[in-house]
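In the laboratory, one determines a bound structure by crystallizing the protein with its ligand and collecting diffraction data. In a computational setting the workflow is compressed into a single prediction: the sequence and the ligand go in, and a structural description comes out. We illustrate the idea with guanosine-5'-diphosphate.
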Amino acid sequence: MDLAELGWDASFERSFRAAGAEGSVPARVSAESQGLFRVMGKAGEWLAAIAGRMRFEAAGRGDLPAVGDWVAVAPRPAEGRATIVRVLPRRTVLARKVAGRAVEAQVLAANLDLVFVVTSLNQELNPRRIERYLALAWESGAQPVVLLSKADLAATAADAEAVRESIDGLAPGVRVLAASAATGAGMDALREALGRGRTAVLVGSSGVGKSTLINALLGDGGLRVGTVREADDRGRHTTTARQLILLPGGGVVIDTPGMRELQLWEADSGLARAFEDLDEVARGCRFRDCRHRGEPGCAVERAIAEGSLPPERLESHRKLEAELRYLEARADPRAQREEKERVKRLCKEQKRGYRPG
Ligand code: GDP
Ligand code: ZN
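The predicted complex, in structure-token form:
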């Protein structure tokens, strides 16, 4: 594997030398799952774990390797394994605040060059949503590009042009591409933008066509997520999928489960904005995760009793929330599984709560 294909360059080379991790070689994190990693280096792909000392010294989750990170690894060729001894300084970081924990950020992907904000031409443009994704992209340090997907479904060329213009208004100077994975129109320009050694992510609402675009970029020759079950050092079996995807024409796309979670983040924040009044009151609840169903110290129920908050607000918030969860569960088999787990857990907690004594 040619490291330059993976995005390696002179500046990473300098960081690697400066890290001074003797006996180690550079590699890029291609997947992460439950603290177990896959890394790609010159000699191929290894399963890797973090050196104990590194785990010990990490101040927070942000210090641990993430997909896209360049790391120094000590290979153990006989076992086909490696140990990650250092994370090289990140050039860019796409991160999301972890819900409920104000300071901790979840690193979704590291060392991105481009963030494609995908919005579909067959849906009405949602400017607020695009703004949020653009803000996230700018914050990462990578270059945002707006990608208008499903170009074949734009009613007319004039419609597509109108969307393009409104995006120019939202994000002056940001490049706008239009493509159709279905017909192939615009795909060459997209491939060119990605280019050899460049790393990109696709963000955007569920259903805008991100996975289809990635598959189209891969074509027949691509190497796509073979999910692999392997045993780690302790003999546990874990599943790691390749989340760093190499495109046949050069270019790397990162597609992690965290990218999918971004959609939930988007829905969550939209919901919060639509119900700011309710949110404001709920900040007075004793419990942060109060569900306003008879919990002690519930400020929402108090406000409803006092007549300062209409009960319909809580009712429609609940309906919307349920609807969102349903949509998410339907759209994503992983979310479906997680939803089942969540319900199981809740049931257990309920039982435990009611057990006498
Ligand atoms: P994701 O949730 O953003 O990954 O979206 P998907 O890639 O799963 O696509 C959602 C739906 O849009 C699927 O039914 C696709 O077949 C459809 N789709 C994706 N790209 C195109 C396109 O370029 N043209 C048309 N007509 N449909 C598309
Ligand atoms: Zn409450």
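Residues 99-103, 224-228 have pLDDT under 50 and may be disordered. Keep in mind that any predicted model is a hypothesis to be tested, not a measurement.
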